[in-house]
Amino acid sequence: MTYDQAKARGIVEQSIREEAAAKNRAADLINIALEKVVEAGLELPGFSTFDKMASKIRTEVNASIRAGIHDRMSDAQRAGVMRLLEERDSDGTTLFNRLKRPAQGPT
User: Would the pTM count as exceeding 0.85?
Assistant: First the structure.
């Protein structure tokens, strides 16, 4: 084992960034980063370092994904999505809640 925290943190950041687009659970991202640091033969940073980096990078990647989706939507599509949150059913729930309801069993 070699003590090189800067290199270890670089490996953690790179591995989390590579996987964050496909995986969203912090535990999965941390486990992947742990494996990469161990493979490199480096001393592990503290868990809080992994946790903070996973949270920060995941937030950045998710924001980038949302921005990409937003940019591809037309004004009419954006208005349609906003209507899901604004219009309410008779029971006071939004139309978005109707989308989230699981399908009923087959009859």
Answer: no
Torsion-angle region of 92 (φ positive above 0: left; ψ -120 to 50: alpha; else: beta): left
Provide the CA 28 distance to its chain's centre, in angstroms. Answer: 11
Q: Which residue pairs, CB below 8 angstroms and at least 24 apart, start in 8-14?
A: 8/37, 8/40, 8/42, 8/43, 8/44, 8/45, 9/45, 9/49, 9/53, 11/36, 11/37, 11/40, 11/42, 12/36, 12/37, 12/45, 12/49, 12/50, 12/53, 13/53, 13/57
Q: Which residues, listed in sequence order, are joined to residue 94 by a DSSP beta bridge?
A: 88
User: Is the predicted pLDDT of residue 100 greater than 90, yes or no?
Assistant: no
